Amino acid sequence: xxxxxxxxxxxxxxxxxxxxxxxxxxxxxxxxxxxxxxxxxxxxxxxxxxxxxxxxxxxxxxxxxxxxxxxxxxxxxxxxxxxxxxxxxxxxxxxxxxxxxxxxxxxxxxxxxxxxxxxxxxxxxxxxxxxxxxxxxxx
Length: 139
Known about the structure:
Order of helices and strands: EHHHEEEHEEH
Shape: globular
Structural class: alpha+beta
Radius of gyration: 17 Å
């Protein structure tokens, strides 16, 4: 992605969480780190992209990644899940938006934010016109 900037990598935080789980005095339990919301797991099953990294807890190949997008210029589409291919297209359509990458294991419930970064071409735009949704029509 050509416009990727302000990248924040959460690898150290992830490693610290995993080390806290493996310490003999156990400051964190497995239930604390494998606490994925059922909606997050369901989203990962339907919209997640397969990751090459196995789950650090159960060692299964169930790890999926999700790309959440946020930004004022996205309007009602802020907070949605987008694929990597969609992000490639969006970076030239919008001036600036944030992408949060989350890894989720559908087997044990492990979840952690991997990275966050900004995308966009830098041109300030108005959010797209609000379109009616099914919720607006039927309540």
